[in-house]
Amino acid sequence: MADTFLSLDIDAVGIAAMIVTRVSKKSYVKKICRINYKDLPETQKPENLLDSALIYLEDHMDMASCSVATLLIPSSSVSFRNIELPFRSAKKIKQILPIEITSHLPVPEEKYISDFHILNSPYKKDQVPVFTASIIESVIENYIDALSQYGIKPKIITPKGYAAAICLLKKIPSITNFICLDLGLCENTITLVHHREPVFVRSFSALQYKAEEFADTVKQALLGFRQTTGSDTCFDLFITAGNGFKDLEKVYYALENLLDYQTRYQQSDDSSQHKPELKKINSTNLISALHPNKKTGPIFNFYKIKTESDPIFRKNIKAIATIIFLACILFASSRYNLHLEIADLNEKIDNNQAIVHSIYKTSFPEEKNIKHPFLQMQSLVKKAIKESNSAKKNEASFIKSNHKAARVMAALSDSIPRTIDMEISRFLLNRTTLVISGTTDNFKNVDRIKSFIEKADLFKQISINSASADKKTDQVLFKFTIQLQKGAL
After folding, report:
1. Domain match, 237 and 355 both
2. CA gap 239, 25 in Å, rounded
3. CA dihedral sign, ordered 170, 173, 177, 178
4. Which residues 6+ apart lie within 8 Å of 132 measured at CB?
5. CATH number at residue 434
6. At what angle do helices 49-60 and 137-148 cross, to 10 degrees?
7. Which domain holds residue 358?
8. Has this prediction a pTM greater than 0.90?
C-alpha cells in the first residue's frame, strides 16, 4: 500500500517541496515544487512568509494527500555543541543539558529546546562525549503551527545538512568514516561522521564562496577533528547537491586534493590503511528516503523534543475538547432526566399523603385536627403500644428474675452428688450473693458440700457461716454464704 508524505526544505530565500510516495520500502518523488519568497504575489505576502509560501504550494501540489511531513531547516539556525560528561544516563543528561549549554547559545535570553546523542567513542578517559543541537523554541512552534492549518504534522524537524549525512548512513551501510558536504542555494553544511556517528557540524553561507575556499574550510574541519582526538583516520568525501547545482564540478575538483592530503599523513605500515573516495550524490533522491514515520538512525528531531515537553492538554487538545463537549451533552441530559424523575417522585408523594390521610381518618375518627397525619398516626400507635406492653413488661421482669434464680438453683443442685443426704430450707439470692441454710447427716458432709459447690463455674467463693448439731432431729444444721462470679447473671 502506498504511503505518501510531504518533504519541505526551507532556506533563507524560499521553500522546496516534494510529495513522496513510499512503496515496498522504496521512495518515489511524485511532485517537486520550489517557491522563492521574492516571487510570491504582492497580495500573498503577509508578515509571515512561511504562511504565504504554504498557500502557494497548496495551489500547485496536492498537499491534502499528506498528513505528515519531514521538515528540513537551515543548519545555521541550529547551535551545535560537543560536551563531555562523567555519566551516560540519558535521563541525567536531559536534566543538566540546559545548564551545560546555556552560556554557549547565541541568544541566551531566548527559550531553547535541545536534542542530543551520546557518542560511543570516548576521546578522553572517564568522559562520555555528547553531541548536542539547540534551536529557539518559538521557531519550531512557528513551523508546527503553520503546517497544522493544513492538517499536517511535521514529525521530523531536523537540520538539512545533518539529515543528508544520516541518510547516507542508511543508504550505504558499509561506510564508516566520511565527511558529508551538503551544497545549497543559501548555505553549505559540513557534517563529519566518525565510526558511523555524526560528531561535528558546521554551516556557512554559500553566496560568493569560491570552490577553493570551500575545500579549505573542509580541510580546516578535518584538522580540527584530528587535533581534538589525536586520530589520523581517513574520511571519504560525499558531495550532496540538488539537480542543476552550479559549480558542482569546480567543488568536486577542488576537493580531490584533500584526498591526497589525508593519505599523506597516514602511517605507511598501517595495515588498516583506507584510500578515501570522493563521490557526488543527488540530495533530492537522498532526502526523499527520510520518512517522518520511520526510525532513521541518530537524527536530531526538534518536533519530538517539542511535543514531549508540551503539557498533555496541548498535545491532546482536540481529544480533550471532544470529551468536554460530550460531557456537557451528558450533563444536560442527566439534568433533564433528573427533572423528570423529581416531578414523578413529587406526584407519588402527593398520592401517598392522600392515602395516609384517608387511613388516619378511618383509624382515628375522633381526631379532628389533622395537620401531619403520618406523624400523628405514629404517635398514637406508639402510645397504644406502650400502654399495651406495660403489663407485659412487668411480667417479663418477674420471669427474668425467676429465671436467674432457677439457674442458680440448677447449678447448685448439679454441683452436689446425689449420694450426699442434704436438704435446703432457706434460699436467699441477690445480684452477687447467695445465702443458703439446710441440714445434712454429719459434719463431714458440710465440708464435702462446700468443696463440691466451689467447683461449680457459677460460684466464686463459699464461706461456712455456721454448722451445729440439731439434738431433736439428730441432723447437722449449716449456713453458707456464696459469692457469685462477676457477670454470671
Report:
1. no
2. 25
3. negative
4. 80, 81, 82, 83, 97, 101, 114, 115, 116
5. 3.30.1360.100
6. 30
7. 312-370
8. no
